Q: What sequence folds into this?
């Protein structure tokens, strides 16, 4: 899990740099700070399981096993990207990895995750579907329709709310009347649990239980992971969101960095040596450099390829 | 050949599909116990069980999104939205997700999803249960749109829709449900993108949709007795659109009327007129006339609704105007 978290962190830190250089032509919403959620949750899955993702989806992709090379190429708008340069940062999907796609519309993944779970139930495939969404999405109608439908049909789906406290610039205290989004589960007669989203082991334990419940045919769970994005809403958000949050708040959350925390835990418990961790980090950085080289070397699609891939 | 109604033709197609392929299931509001608000799915839950004919909550986004997700994970869903007006409640799932997913993900997935939905005015159902919104969906790349005008086409096109690997919006003109016509009992398909020339003629081309095809045919029959031969072209699918049959007809007659129940601005007729203007304007001997609904919501009362829906009188007025051009 540490390796995956490091990959996500290194990948995204590199995007900050590449974005500033103008190599990423579109929007990029970074996941830095939230790595424990995607990694802890996806570590509970089997290869056949499925996920739906959001506009802030790089972490989900890597956690589900995506290769950073076609990911980076996609961000660069290259033909070798996961979506041939047609999707970009906000729309990476890999059907073969069980990554049904990152959706740019907030809240839209719930109904689709449900459908995949309904198919899993009908086909008796044993698959579980994780639906990632944010605190902002929990206020959309689509989320509530999905929660009701999933609970009603006891679908093998787990709703994972990545509560990073902000819907773009609006703080949770200003957009939701509840303290815990997990409390909404009660309204749909499903379990709702809160996990520390800065602690990958806590996420793993909580989501693991929910996945087991889902796989056993006992229906969905709403897991709220309390987390925080260290960067702004998107690259270009001035001063990491200084218009709507205090620098001291960012520093407080940074002190709880999920990667730092896991490293300290592993060293303290003598599970992994510090030198080994350093090597993992160095390897992750090298793989990201390889991804950059791959993306740079890849061709852009020709303009006329715009007309391809609409219909099967 | 035996004659059955449009509703029965659809019901038979659904039944034959459920028998044919285990991956097919039906989901929507009141489609199970109740048999569908217009009884199109009547008897199917009894025959195939509640796991294959699923009554849903009133949650249009969950219905359409559920169809998308199931299609991505190996099933072939047919979902029903009770009225086309309700597509606007779940437009995100239809237009942003179903229509775009294959493209924005670089062509790596197919979405074999059929969205059935009744359309049109004529039942005094007013502004929220009577619209004809097909032109709205023609504007969205990634959706196929079927628009049958009789029971035979309804069954064949629905069978084709279910076989398609792409999302298909299958629009049913609700005033056609009781229309009777010859329909083969066996399973058959009608290819998408092939217009049907419902009546041949040399003098005027009418391109019409849904039940407007039948109104145009009725006018053509009446005027034929007076020596005027109108050709009636039914595109049958709005996407893909069979431009060549329409253009060939206009090249023959030199005169074009479109008849469509949608509102006027940027409507179906506007698109047909634009295509003809771009590709065959040299053949036109007269202006193109669009017979359409006015730019108002659908009104309730009978006098108002009658005025709203394009009538045979409106078609005849358009014909008379064109005949002034020799």
A:
């Amino acid at each position: 899990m540490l390796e995956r978290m490091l990959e996500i962190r290194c990948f995204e830190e590199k995007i900050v740099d590449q974005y500033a250089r103008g190599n990423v032509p579109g929007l990029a919403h970074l996941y830095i700070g939230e790595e424990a959620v995607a990694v802890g949750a996806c570590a509970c899955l089997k290869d056949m399981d499925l996920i739906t993702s959001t506009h802030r989806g790089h972490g989900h992709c890597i956690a589900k096993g995506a290769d950073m090379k076609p990911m980076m190429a996609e961000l660069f708008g290259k033909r070798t990207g996961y979506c041939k340069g047609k999707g970009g940062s906000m729309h990476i999907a890999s059907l073969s990895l069980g990554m049904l796609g990152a959706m740019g519309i907030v809240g839209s993944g719930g109904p689709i995750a449900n459908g995949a779970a309904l198919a899993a139930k009908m086909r008796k495939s044993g698959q579980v579907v994780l639906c990632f969404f944010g605190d902002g999405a929990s206020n959309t109608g689509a989320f509530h329709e999905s929660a009701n439908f999933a609970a009603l049909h006891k679908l093998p789906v787990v709703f994972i709310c990545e509560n990073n406290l902000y819907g773009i610039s609006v703080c949770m205290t200003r957009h939701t009347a509840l303290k815990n989004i997990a409390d909404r589960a009660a309204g749909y007669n499903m379990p709702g649990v809160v996990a520390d989203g800065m602690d990958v082991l806590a996420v793993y334990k909580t989501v693991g239980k929910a996945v087991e419940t889902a796989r056993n045919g006992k229906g969905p769970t709403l897991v709220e992971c309390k987390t925080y994005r260290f960067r702004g809403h998107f690259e270009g958000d001035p001063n990491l969101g200084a218009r709507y949050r205090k620098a001291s708040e960012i520093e407080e959350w940074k002190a709880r960095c999920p990667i730092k925390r896991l490293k300290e835990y592993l060293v303290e418990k003598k599970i992994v040596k510090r030198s080994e961790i350093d090597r993992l980090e160095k390897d992750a950085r090298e793989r990201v450099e390889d991804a950059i080289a791959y993306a740079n070397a890849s061709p852009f699609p020709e303009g006329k390829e715009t007309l391809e891939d609409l219909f099967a | 050949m035996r004659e059955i109604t449009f509703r029965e033709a659809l019901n038979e197609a659904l039944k034959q599909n459920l028998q044919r392929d285990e991956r097919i299931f039906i989901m929507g509001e009141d489609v199970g116990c109740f048999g569908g608000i217009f009884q199109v799915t009547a008897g199917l839950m009894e025959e195939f069980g509640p796991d294959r004919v699923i009554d849903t909550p009133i949650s249009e986004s969950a219905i359409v999104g559920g169809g998308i997700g199931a299609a991505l994970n190996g099933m072939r869903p047919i979902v029903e939205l009770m009225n086309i007006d309700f597509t606007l409640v779940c437009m995100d799932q239809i237009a942003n997700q179903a229509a775009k997913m294959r493209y924005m993900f670089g062509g790596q997935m197919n979405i074999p999803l059929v969205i059935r939905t009744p359309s049109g005015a004529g039942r005094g159902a007013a502004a929220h249960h009577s619209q004809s919104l097909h032109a709205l969906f023609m504007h969205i790349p990634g959706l196929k749109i079927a628009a049958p005008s009789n029971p035979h086409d309804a069954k064949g096109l629905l069978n084709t829709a279910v076989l398609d690997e792409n999302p298909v919006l299958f629009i049913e003109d609700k005033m056609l449900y009781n229309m009777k016509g010859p329909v083969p009992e066996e399973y058959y398909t009608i290819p998408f993108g092939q217009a049907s020339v419902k009546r041949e003629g040399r003098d005027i081309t009418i391109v019409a949709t849904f039940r407007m095809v039948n109104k145009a045919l009725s006018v053509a029959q009446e005027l034929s007795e007076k020596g005027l031969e109108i050709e009636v072209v039914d595109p049958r699918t709005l996407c893909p659109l069979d431009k060549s049959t329409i253009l060939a007809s206009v090249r023959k007659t030199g005169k074009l009327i479109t008849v469509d129940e949608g509102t006027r601005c940027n409507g179906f007729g506007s698109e047909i007129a634009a295509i003809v203007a771009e590709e065959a304007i040299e053949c036109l001997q007269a202006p193109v006339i669009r017979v359409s609904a006015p730019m108002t919501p659908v009104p309730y009362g009978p006098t108002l609704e009658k005025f709203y829906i394009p009538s045979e009188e409106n078609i005849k007025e358009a014909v008379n105007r064109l005949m002034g051009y020799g």
Q: What stands out?
A: Chain A has a mean pLDDT of 96. Chain A is about 45% helix and 10% strand. Residues 27 and 288 of chain A are 19 Å apart (CA to CA). The first strand of chain A starts at residue 50 and ends at 53.
